[in-house]
């Protein structure tokens, strides 16, 4: 199990409660669970890395348990209860420095957990119907929350009493009707204070807490279906959004224009993640496929069928393609190599043909030249 | 001599004379006129050759002929020849087969886009634990475990006219425990909670366009999924030839053909859950959902065992064809609902040999 898990560079949580690992270079997918007790209560809703070295994976299930999965050993090492099932399923999960844990339920309680304590260290109330909670990758104390009828709020975990930033209501539309908030996903834009959100009303908003303006500094629109997921690529200035019809688009964050669409999806997107260094984006959703698109040419690079509806996704920060080169993977690697060797051994040697080909290639231009001369 | 004869011939007779006279002169040995005359004759000969044999240089195409009539003529001729050749080859092959008798090689299977189908990785393996678990705990599991009995509400788009009304009525005779209600301009999202409260397990909405049914929304209650189909080639009972008497109220057997992929399985389960789980065989009725090239053909038959080998069937109607447009998770919510599968034209059906169901 451990060897397998070390190969995987993409991790996915499914609706059937199975943690799935995919090795992109090998084109193999593994299930990490006990297939004898599958149940829908174990449905995975959130995934995050437990430590910066990416050896531990934190998995949030619907019934309010957070399990720790060791990618070294390839098995679940720990399971602890974080919050009641009454709080709703996890909408966000993040690891804090020093073995701390940050969870957020659907009904709004954001809790900070320390190791060896069953009670939360700190708790803040983000309001009802929270759709997503995200921790800033740069400032480990900044947390953003948002949901339906619940605008974007940015919190400081040191001061959980009230948020440091709350989005103001949106300006009324051209019919003087109220426009509701429905934040579905958000992300902190690196190197700035800005936060980008996508909404259930197919808008993309950029908020800037450093400016006095509490309404979005940029409003953009994509498609006509609710946007469900969002991710920021490593190369700045763009954002990738996905909607419930399986349309993914790249938007420019400077003017809010669509830069291109990613094709090939059949069902709604549940989670998107861009690779931290490579220009690729991975998407998963209701059509049970993991798809990896290149962001530069917007082509579909990989497509893996994973048999269950997928809820969440996590990419490891190492190179997607090179997973085989690692030291610990020799055991499985050799097996595969053996198979390959057999295949190669059984094949006939085809050394002569290329020579001929090269000969023809050499000849052909000569012929052409001759023809030209004749002409 | 020459000068005097020519005007006479022109005046007296038609072209026949014209042709004959110069020939005679040529034979007489007029050296000057011989050259051009021969050329004409040669051309005529060539034309004759073409007519008789139809031989062309290898890269000659009929479309190069400028004269339309001639082109048409030649085209027909070539076509006939090809057909003749084909028949000959066929006969020859048949004779060879007969001569070989039992040793004849097996007949080649004709290539169709179905048997050339691109492999779909979502094809369900019946032994797959994960898929079995997924299906065992999905929204239809209550029905398949025998906990609920289907109860179907059939309604239409607003103000149905003509065939749509009759189509709904006939659907209600096919599906046991179905109730047809007039829509009364109600929103589906408000109808659904009422249906759930009254223990309906299905909501079926027939959409119409210009008095013809053209869409079907099939919503499983209480918690989805919802499928949207295009409906085409509806033939009501009246329009079916050699149909049997009206169906009885027995619950029919359900035949689901060719639903092989994961999506196909979901759709198949959706249809299966429309009918009660225990068919009443005494009714001898069978409802068929046959999937071919992603089109789902519905037929409703009555069968009879004539003797031990022969079975007679009789169509009862209605018959129609469905094509899946989308499958949505949850009950009907076309605006904010999450779609499990959406047909994307020109993207999904770009390959004719790729099928989704």
From TrEMBL, chain A:
The keyword Iron does not apply. It comes from Pleuronectes platessa. One of its GO terms (cellular component) is preribosome, large subunit precursor. Residues 324-375 are annotated as: Disordered. It is found in: Nucleus, Nucleolus. GO terms for biological process: ribosomal large subunit biogenesis; RNA metabolic process. Isoform 1 interacts (through WDR repeats) with NVL; the interaction is independent of RNA or pre-60S ribosome particles. Isoform 2 does not interact with NVL. Interacts with MTREX; the interaction dissociation in a late stage of rRNA synthesis is required for appropriate maturation of pre-60S particles and depends on the ATPase activity of NVL. The lineage of its organism: Eukaryota, Metazoa, Chordata, Craniata, Vertebrata. InterPro entries: WD40/YVTN_repeat-like_dom_sf, WD40_repeat_dom_sf, WD40_rpt, WDR74/Nsa1. Residues 332-349 have a biased composition (Acidic residues). Keywords: Methylation, Nucleus, Phosphoprotein, Repeat, WD repeat. This is WD repeat-containing protein 74. Residues 350-359 have a biased composition (Basic and acidic residues). SUPFAM superfamilies: WD40 repeat-like (SSF50978).
From TrEMBL, chain B:
InterPro entries: Brix, IMP4/RPF1. GO terms for biological process: maturation of 5.8S rRNA; maturation of LSU-rRNA. It is found in: Nucleus, Nucleolus. Residues 17-27, 85-95 have a biased composition (Basic residues). Pfam families: Brix. Residues 1-68, 85-108 are annotated as: Disordered. Its main location: nucleus. Signal peptide: none annotated. Residues 150-333 form the Brix domain. Keywords: Ribosome biogenesis, rRNA processing. Residues 30-51, 96-108 have a biased composition (Basic and acidic residues). GO terms for molecular function: rRNA primary transcript binding. GO terms for cellular component: nucleolus; preribosome, large subunit precursor. The keyword rRNA processing applies. PANTHER family: RIBOSOME PRODUCTION FACTOR 1 (PTHR22734:SF3), U3 SMALL NUCLEOLAR RIBONUCLEOPROTEIN PROTEIN IMP4 (PTHR22734). May be required for ribosome biogenesis. This is Ribosome production factor 1. It comes from Pleuronectes platessa.
């Amino acid at each position: 199990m451990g060897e397998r898990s070390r190969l995987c560079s993409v991790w996915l949580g499914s609706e059937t409660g199975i943690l799935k690992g995919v090795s992109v270079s090998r084109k193999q997918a593994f299930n990490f669970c006990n297939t004898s007790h599958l149940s829908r209560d174990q449905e995975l809703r959130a995934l995050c890395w437990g430590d910066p070295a990416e050896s531990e994976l934190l998995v949030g299930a619907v019934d309010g348990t957070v399990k720790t999965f060791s990618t070294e050993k390839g098995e679940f090492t720990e399971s602890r209860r974080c919050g009641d099932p009454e709080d709703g399923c996890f909408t966000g999960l993040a690891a804090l420095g020093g073995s701390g844990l940050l969870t957020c339920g659907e009904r709004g309680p954001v809790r900070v957990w320390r190791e060896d304590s069953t009670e939360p260290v700190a708790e803040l109330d983000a309001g009802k119907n929270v759709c997503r909670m995200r921790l800033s990758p740069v400032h480990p104390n900044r947390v953003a929350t948002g949901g339906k009828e619940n605008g974007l709020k940015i919190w400081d975990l040191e001061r959980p009493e009230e948020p440091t930033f709350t989005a103001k209501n949106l300006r009324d539309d051209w019919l003087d009707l109220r426009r509701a908030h429905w934040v579905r996903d958000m992300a902190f834009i690196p190197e700035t204070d800005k936060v980008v959100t996508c909404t259930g009303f197919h808008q993309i908003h950029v908020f800037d807490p450093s400016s006095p303006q509490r309404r979005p500094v940029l409003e953009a629109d994509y498609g006509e279906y609710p946007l469900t997921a969002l991710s920021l690529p490593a190369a700045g200035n763009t954002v990738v959004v996905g909607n419930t019809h399986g349309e993914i688009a790249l938007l420019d964050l400077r003017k809010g224009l669509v830069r291109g669409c990613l094709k090939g999806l059949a069902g709604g997107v549940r989670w998107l993640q861009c690779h931290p260094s490579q220009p690729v984006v991975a998407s998963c959703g209701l059509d049970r496929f993991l798809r990896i698109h290149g962001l530069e040419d917007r082509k579909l690079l990989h497509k893996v069928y994973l048999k269950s509806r997928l809820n969440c996704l996590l990419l490891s920060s190492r190179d997607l393609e090179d997973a085989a080169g690692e030291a610990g993977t020799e055991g499985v690697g050799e097996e595969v190599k053996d198979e390959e060797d057999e295949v190669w051994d059984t094949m006939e040697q085809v050394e002569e043909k290329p020579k001929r080909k090269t000969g023809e290639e050499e000849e052909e231009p000569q012929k052409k030249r001759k023809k030209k001369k004749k002409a | 001599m020459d000068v005097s004869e020519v005007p006479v011939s022109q005046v007296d007779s038609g072209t026949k004379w014209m042709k004959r006279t110069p020939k005679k002169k040529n034979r007489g040995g007029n050296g000057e006129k011989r050259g051009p005359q021969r050329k004409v004759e040669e051309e005529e000969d060539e034309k004759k050759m073409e007519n008789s044999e139809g031989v062309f240089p290898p890269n000659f195409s009929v479309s190069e002929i400028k004269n339309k009539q001639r082109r048409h003529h030649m085209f027909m001729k070539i076509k006939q020849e090809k057909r003749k050749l084909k028949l000959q080859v066929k006969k020859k092959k048949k004779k060879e087969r007969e001569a070989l008798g039992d040793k004849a090689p097996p007949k080649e299977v004709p290539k169709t886009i179905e048997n050339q189908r691109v492999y779909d990785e979502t094809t369900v393996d019946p032994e797959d634990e994960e898929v079995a678990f997924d299906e065992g705990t999905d929204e239809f599991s209550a029905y398949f475990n025998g906990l609920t009995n289907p109860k179907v509400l059939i309604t239409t788009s607003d103000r149905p006219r003509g065939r749509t009304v009759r189509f709904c009525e006939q659907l209600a005779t096919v599906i046991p425990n179905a109730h047809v209600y007039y829509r009364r301009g109600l929103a589906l999202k408000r109808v659904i909670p009422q249906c759930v409260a009254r223990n309906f397990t299905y909501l079926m909405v027939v959409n119409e366009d210009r008095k013809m049914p053209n869409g079907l929304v099939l919503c499983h209650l209480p918690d989805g999924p919802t499928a949207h189909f295009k409906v085409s080639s509806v033939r009501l009972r009246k329009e079916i030839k050699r149909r049997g008497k009206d169906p009885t109220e027995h619950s029919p057997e359900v035949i689901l053909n060719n639903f092989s992929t994961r999506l196909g399985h979901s759709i198949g389960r959706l249809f299966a859950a429309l009918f009660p789980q225990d068919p009443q065989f005494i009714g001898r009725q069978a409802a068929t959902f046959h999937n071919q090239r992603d089109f789902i053909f519905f037929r409703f038959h009555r069968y009879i065992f004539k003797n031990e080998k022969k079975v007679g069937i009789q169509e009862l109607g209605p018959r129609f064809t469905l094509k899946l447009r989308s499958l949505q998770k949850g009950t009907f919510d076309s605006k904010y609902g999450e779609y499990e599968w959406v047909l994307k034209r020109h993207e999904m059906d770009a390959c004719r040999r790729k099928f989704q169901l």
